[in-house]
Amino acid sequence: MKYKLKVNVKGFTLIELMTVMAIIAILATSIMVALSVHKQRAEAGKILTELSGAMQNIYLCQSDDGVVLNPVGGGNICSGLTNAGEYGSWPDLRNTSFVEYDSGSDLSTSPWKYSTTNTNGEVICCNSKYGRCEKKEEGICTPNTFLK
């Protein structure tokens, strides 16, 4: 009995394998970039929510004749009252891409504002004139910054 060897065996060449690996690497890179953008947006949303909560505590402090302290990450929002610690503390930005707070005016006066900026230039403005906080893609916040 004779056995015949198959000479025409088909397979992948080295070039074809390297091309497929390059395509997979490009797709993986684009996915990683997209995920990092979504992570930054989520972080900005979290900071915006925390700052909006701080605004409510500011109003409570002022309505109880307390003094609103300038924003410092982790520091108390209110002073001058026996229960000042119950008004909460400023959100701590040290473990985020946002830098420390910028307070453009004395927070006990109106209209006051405070803001923070991340490393991509996005700004979160909080303004008593409009009673809210908002994320802006770029720019600076002033007491008269228009918030939608």
Fold blueprint:
Elements (H helix, E strand, L loop, with lengths): L13 H50 L3 E2 L9 E2 L22 E2 L9 E5 L5 E5 L4 E5 L12
Antiparallel strand pairs: 1-2, 3-4, 4-5, 5-6
Describe the 3D structure.
The protein is an alpha+beta fold. The chain has one domain. It is 34% helix and 14% strand. The protein contains 1 helix and 6 strands. The strands form 2 sheets. A 4-stranded antiparallel β-sheet has the order 3-4-5-6, with helices on one face. Strands 1-2 form a two-stranded antiparallel ribbon. A hairpin with a 5-residue loop joins β4 and β5. The radius of gyration is 27 Å and the shape is rod-shaped. The mean pLDDT is 82.
Span of the ends, CA to CA:
88 Å
Over the alpha carbons, how many angstroms does the gyration radius reach? 27 Å
Largest sheet, in brief, is:
4 strands, antiparallel
**How much helix is in the residues?**
25-40%
* Strand tally: 6
Regions with little confidence, pLDDT below 50 for 5+ residues: none
Number of domains: 1
Spatial strand order of the main sheet: 3-4-5-6
Arithmetic mean of pLDDT: 82
Structural descriptors:
148 residues, alpha+beta, two-stranded antiparallel sheet
Summarize the structure.
With 148 residues, the chain is α+β, with helices and mostly antiparallel strands. Helix content is 34%, strand content 14%.
